Amino acid sequence: AEPTKPHRIHLTKNKRWVLYFKTISITMQRSINTYSMMLLLLLACSAKSGFVEAFTTPTSSIQQSAGKRVTQGAPIFASVASYQLDEDFSNNGNNINSRRIQIQRLFGKKGAKTSSLRAICTALPFLLLKRLSLGSSVAWAASTATSIPTFKKEEILSYRALCFLKATGQNILTSLRHPTKDTLKAIAYTLVSIYLLTNIVEGMAASKRQTLDATSEWGRYADKPAARGQALSLLMMQLTPYAILPSLLDKFSKKKKDDLSETEYKSTRAHKLRRRGGEMFADGLLKLGPLYVKIGQILSCRENLFPDEWITAMERLQDRVPAKSGKEAWDLLYDAAPGGKAGFHKQFSDFDDVPLAAASLGQVHRATLRSSGERVAIKLQRSRLRDIYDKDLALMKKIAKIVDKFGKAGQVGGIEQSWVSIFNDAESIMYREIDYRDEADNAIRFANDFGIGLGGVEIESTAKGKDGNALPSAAEWLRTPYTYGDLSSEKFLVMEYVPSIKANNNEALDKAGVTLEDREYLAECLAHAYLRQFCAHKFFSTDPHAGNLGIEVFEDERAPRVVFYDFGQACSLADDQAGGILDVIESIVDSDAKKSVSAFSRMGVLKDSADLEMVQAKCQQNYDEGKLKVKKRKSRKSSRYNTKEKVLAKESEKAELDARIDSAKQAKNTTDTSEGVNDLEVMASFTLQSEYAFVARALSQMDGVGKSLDPEFDFISAAAPYLVEVKGTGKYLTDEIKKKFTFVYGEDGILAKELQLFKSLGLKLPTKE
After folding, report:
1. Is-contact 534 463, C-beta < 8 A?
2. pLDDT for the residue 699
């Protein structure tokens, strides 16, 4: 019960610390919960200077406050147990030993009113915040204490809070007038203590929420980047032993990993540690937010960077991110659909509230179009994505500006680039990704460029080759879902339902009867698709990880085909950029170092101050050492990969390409590279435009998927047979003839010299009208 009589406090600094000691002693005796124990430890840290003073301050400094009782009526220590301070505490003993005995007696005494656990736990924050109030004298309470009227039970807490706030506020203002070194030190200790305690409590609460939903903290991390930074730091520390120990175990193991069978390796400690580390890494990225899930998707395609166990764990970030289902899925649907609930049910039926797949930005459900009865896939966007992007991208932009200020320290591989420029383009692409209307436009353009209509039927391609003629439809070897742009909105995308097998799911491909030869063909189709996108369409998907690529298998004798999904991230190229990429590919096929340098210049990746001779020498050195080489196309036994009308043409193209590769191998080195060229010096001649960062990303992810289908896959070798298609037969043959007659058509050939002569004489060449 609350006391009805007023009580006053008049304690010296010594007595104030005695109260701290007494509170700690009783609390420890009662074995309070973990949070209170943490608070006690932090309190002890912030009060450590007071411990010494409590034992060493002369007795004469103790004011005559003995005999007074500290009760629950005091403004500051309102919830502390009542203590009877001995009368002789201030009168007896003038040395340290006698004072210790007195303190022990004080600690040993039990007041008439022993505080409850609840009262102690309530007092601890007050004590800590008392330190925050700059440690001013508690004697203020003696002059400000007032009579405490009788309160109703529901009014007691409010009164205590008001008293505490009033006391704390006045103490802070009073102490700020005369700050001391000890005061500032106390502030620092207290602030750090409160900060650490708050983060520990928040972290434990977040961990509980993430156990139920791994995406629950995305919004909080966007609001509090520091919390994400702490979570990321903790993740890195947790991963360190899982990254180091397996390698040490392999090093000291009697049998090497390569000597063990798959079953034997899975039973080893190293495998279990790697698997646990991979799961921990994937879980950590998932909990950090959508941008980190994107990073995990990219890393999952780089088998050469991480152990297989880590790659397997990160693959689930591609299409198995936790999703909403049941009532939550319906709420998400009604919020995203044009026209809300009524608008959705007017257009669709048979909505399946269990998602087919889910990734960082959205989840996909099946439904039926009422107008045609066709099965469609509906992509719904997660909540709060724009708000999360606003905050996360603003932080990353600041980081990009800081990196650019470091100059060479911010370079990658010695190549100069503007991280702000790259980030600005990335920001534009990422914002377009969370507007499904832009994704619908990208998907429609992609399908039209490849000549693919509803149901995967062949339509006329809108893309043109280098000779100006329309490219052939890719419907025979490529598929993409038809997109209903008129039914889509910012958070609601409607597509044709096209089931397929995930591109890197070898077990499912085996069950579907997809042979090794089929997979080599599919890997080549993937390279074929990107050759057309880079060099002819001038528009490409930047995110070809395995979650966005599928394999469509037929029950008849038709060959399987690659299925492209998700066009939220797409990038366009300028004419010279697309033409330069094509020239680079051809120069690699021909092992022509001089043409490689010309291609780099056309792409715009060489600085004005670049040493072209050194770049050419390095290219030639790479060709001579076999670092850049093209493999001949594999012959296929099955006739189902080509229609009968195309068999002869394909054989002719293969023979032409093989001859071209053989000719490149026989070419003599005309550049002296015996001393070699330093890689960093060469790379310093390059500058990276932002578009090429997305080209590199697409190539990296595509290479990972290609190697999962065909371990010997490389983009240049797989794409080389389709140079004829991209350039057009007439232009391709003309260019090949010019190569064979370089004395006529070359830079120093007859035609070039005649052109110079005409110019020197002031003559003009006739032009076509």
Report:
1. no
2. 93
3-state SS, 17-86, equals HHHHHHHHHHHHHCCCCHHHHHHHHHHHHHCHHHHHHHHHCCHHHCCCCCCCEECCCCCCCCCCCCEECC
Cα–Cα distance measured from residue 745 to residue 753, given in angstroms and rounded to the nearest whole number: 10
Per the CB < 8 A criterion, the answer to whether 570 and 540 are in contact is yes
Q: How far is CA 14 from CA 199, 208, 432, 669, in A?
A: 32, 42, 65, 89
Query: What does the alpha-carbon distance between residue 103 and residue 14 come to, in Å, rounded to a whole number?
Result: 11
Q: How far apart are CA 124 and CA 597, in angstroms?
A: 72
User: DSSP character for 515?
Assistant: -
Q: In this structure, are residues 444 and 488 in contact, taking their beta carbons and an 8 Å threshold?
A: no
In this prediction, residue 52 carries a pLDDT of: 34
Q: Which residues of 67-97 are buried (b: 16+ CB within 10 A; e: fewer)?
A: ebbbbbbbbbbbbbbbbebeeebbeeeeeee
| Beta-bridge partner residues of 502 | 550
Q: Which helix (H) or strand (E) holds 742?
A: helix 742-745
Q: Which two tokens stand for residue 563?
A: 């299925």
Write the DSSP assignment of 534-547 as a string of letters: IIII-EEES---GG
SS3 of residue 621 by DSSP: helix
Per-residue buried b or exposed e for 596-621, using 16+ beta carbons within 10 Å of the residue's own CB: bbbbbbbbebbeeebbeebbbbbbbb
Cα angle 694, 695, 697; round to 5: 60
User: What is the predicted pLDDT for the residue at 470?
Assistant: 94
Residue 650 has a pLDDT of 55
d(Cα 509, Cα 516) in Å, to the nearest integer?
10
Three-state secondary structure of 161-195: HHHHHHHHHHHHHHHHCCCCHHHHHHHHHHHHHHH
> Taking Cα atoms as reference points, which of 335, 327, 329, 313 lies closest to residue 364?
329
List the Cα angle 221/384/445 in 5-degree steps: 120
Distance, CA of 602 to CA of 583 (rounded, Å): 9
Spatial neighbors of 343 by CB under 8 A, at least 6 apart, are 337
Measure Cα distances from 53 to 45, 67, 131, 179, 426 in Å: 15, 22, 15, 19, 60
CA within 13 Å, CB half, 375: 7
- Please give the DSSP secondary-structure letter assigned to residue 533: I
Distance CA 269, CA 250 (A): 9
**Exposed (0-12), middle (13-18) or buried (19+): which is 369, by Cβ within 10 Å?**
middle
> Contact at 8 Å (CB) between 161 and 122?
no
For 673-701, write each residue's pLDDT tens digit: 445 677 778 888 888 787 888 898 899 89
91 Cβ contact list (under 8 Å, min separation 6): 66
CA count, 13 A, side-chain hemisphere, 118: 1
Question: Is residue 328 left, alpha or beta, with left meaning phi > 0 and alpha meaning psi from -120 to 50?
Answer: alpha
Residues 150 and 4: beta-carbon distance below 8 Å: yes
Q: Which of 77-91, 346-360, 370-384, 470-484 has the lowest mean pLDDT?
A: 77-91
Q: Would the CA dihedral through 478, 481, 482, 488 be positive or negative?
A: negative
Phi, psi values for residue 703, rounded to 5° = -65, -40
CB 336 within 8 A of CB 328: no
pLDDT in tens, 569-589: 899 999 999 999 999 999 999
pLDDT digits (tens, 9 = 90+) for 421-442: 777 877 887 888 889 999 999 9
> CA angle 102-107-109, nearest 5°?
95
pLDDT one-digit tens code per residue, 122-169: 555 655 555 444 444 444 444 444 445 565 666 666 777 777 777 777
CB burial string 181-217: b at 16+ within 10 A, e below: eeeeebbebbeebbeebeeeeeeeebeeebeeebbeb
- 3-state SS assignment for residue 366: strand
Residue (of 153, 144, 158, 154) closest to 76 by Cα position: 144
